[in-house]
Request: fold
Amino acid sequence: MSHGQQASTVKERSHIALNNEFLRKAVKFTTERLRNGKKKATEEHGNWEEWRERGRQIRLHTIAHLDYYLNQFVENARANGVHVHFAADGKEAVELSMKIAASKQTRSVVKSKSMVSEELHINAALEKMGIEAVETDLGEYIIQLAGETPSHIIIPAIHKNRYQIAELLSKEAGETLPADTSILAGFVRRKLREKFLDAEIGMTGCNFAIAETGSMVLFENEGNARMVSTVPKTQITLMGMERIIPTFADLEVMATLLPRSATGQKLTVYMSAISGPKRDADADGPEEMHIIIVDNGRSLQLGDPEFQELLNCIRCGACLNACPVYRHIGGHAYGGTYSGPIGAVLTPALQSNVAEWDDIANASSLCGACYEACPVKIPLHDMLVYLRNRKVEKGYGQTAEKIGMKGFAAIMSNSKRMRSVIKMGQIGQKLVARQGMIKTKIGPLKGWNSVRYLPSLPNQSFRERWGTLEQEVQASNPKMSDEVRQRMEQALEQRKNGGRHHG
Amino acid sequence: MKVSLFITCLSDAIYPRVGEAMVRLLARYGVQVEFPKTQTCCGQPAFNSGYWEEARESARTLLAAFEDSDFVISPSGSCTGMIQHYYPKLFEKDPIMIEKAMQLQEKTYEFTQFLVQVLGVKDVGAVFPHKVTYHPSCHGSRLLGIKEEPLTLMENVKGMELIPLPFAEDCCGFGGTFAVKMSEISAAMVSEKAQHVLESEAEVLVGLDMGCMMNISGNLMYQGKPIRVMHLAELLYEGVKQA
Ligand code: SF4
Reply:
């Protein structure tokens, strides 16, 4: 059980999403709010691009020396009294958690938001053991009540509107609650209080792990993660192995980049750095603390020039909020734990099973909005193409597409052939073209022409037009001014000196 | 100095008027464009679908056709981006071809880049008394950073009212083969984009990439909305003739 294999295709799942008006409205509304918030926050920041580059450099450096920093982190955490475990895959991580839970005769676990725990499907495993697992982040709590999975990295219930949420919570309350956010949140707060006091174990994720001190850092807005990490006697932290940053000074950069990118907040409401179990002088905190460092496909990316940067991700969700595809289909259509552009790349990459997962890599127009939004500049739009390429190179291309592409190459490798194909089109279209448009929905035109018309080909292509056009232009005897000549010569000169760079 | 036109397969077959406008506009500055007929397509449809060998076969025609050009100018930010960002990757294992790919990368310009950055033209002297809105195509504006050039050119067109397009930077849903493969998602995206164009109440939609323009105009035609869709080169050339 690692990422949940999907029987359906992204096409089928997005068909369902596209026909769900509630979902589309809710997702559009919130992503709009988040991306506007981010825009404002980054503009106000003033030096966003420099900080973004700094963030990228920190992540690049850390991941390039991940073994070193992981070691340092583990040594320091152990010296602080933390039990550190390694899990090669999801199964191992679940087993380790179960063992700890069993040794504490646990009946109840409270959880703060953790995407890694979603990736491992740990709630289902706990419940199988008869242990109640309660999500305490408001969004996660809602999703848990609905029996669903999060559809956004930071806003798990983004696909639900207020009324749907009120309905869910009313069922839980046994009375009708109004669709008023503060009343609903008040109900959940009261409900969760009891759960916090009951639970033997608090389970958290980890936003950053600081190598120089062995501390784990949590970012949150609701205060629930503080409760999870202080009230229960035992704390289990699930941490992706790439969450490391070298120092507290680096945390400053991350604390600047992450909340602004995620929600447009200047700072997260609570930022807790926890360096070990409760000491005698501490007022609160767990008596026993475990950190489970999870690989689950992450180390496969190390040393891969095309995908290593995936490990730089700080899970801010900005790429989801910027993505025009995500806006229309929401997160569940991606079919994995992680959705949006990062999910479309991360899911297949973690599974390294390109043959079966290539499908979601196709759900992108490659517009690059994700890359532009990303606080650590991960080139997701390029990675999507690399995934498609790997699928083809490994021989999993679809037969029809393979034939089509062979045809493409045959035509485009030779301009004479291209010319005759255009000619054939000009003649062939006579059957279907009317007033400069082609409206038929047959064959490959079905998808395109369902919401558009196709322009028909003009009688002359550019290459056919060129002969006379060239003569006409020459006849006008154009003269070049000295200024223009100088500028062009200058451009050539610069190029010779290596002056023109393409970013 | 040899200035060559890379027409792109789309404009060659469907929008020759865009190439003509570019050639005639540049001639006004004494730039005589030539057109190597052995060129075909940048290979992007195959590249983006993962078929890199097929993309290389197409790309080789450009590397050969423009081998001795000093400047290569194209009416598409997307196809220019393909050359500038991905040709070196495409030929990374071929020591001879990568050299050529990097030379082509150096000398290829999107049309407004060439006009503004190289020739230093900011005002072509056009008059275009219409309400116009502009869609900045993703590859040109985001990946090549072409943001100021078209705006400078448009701001200097006399009589033209440039209306901001709501959510202008959102993708129109074209994405080449994406529009066919993921037609339903693409349909949702283009419908939203067309809606924003209609909200702007512009008479003309202008852009720098005919793929996107074909996509949006296709939807506008489908809806029976008579909004004129043009490449900026066409608009400028028409405006110059009117002046
Ligand atoms: S890929 Fe970038 S934008 Fe997306 S979640 Fe990760 S850090 Fe944020």
User: Anything to note?
Assistant: The radius of gyration of chain A is 27 Å. Residues A 153, 261, 313-319, 342, 373-376, 378 surround iron/sulfur cluster (CB under 6 Å).
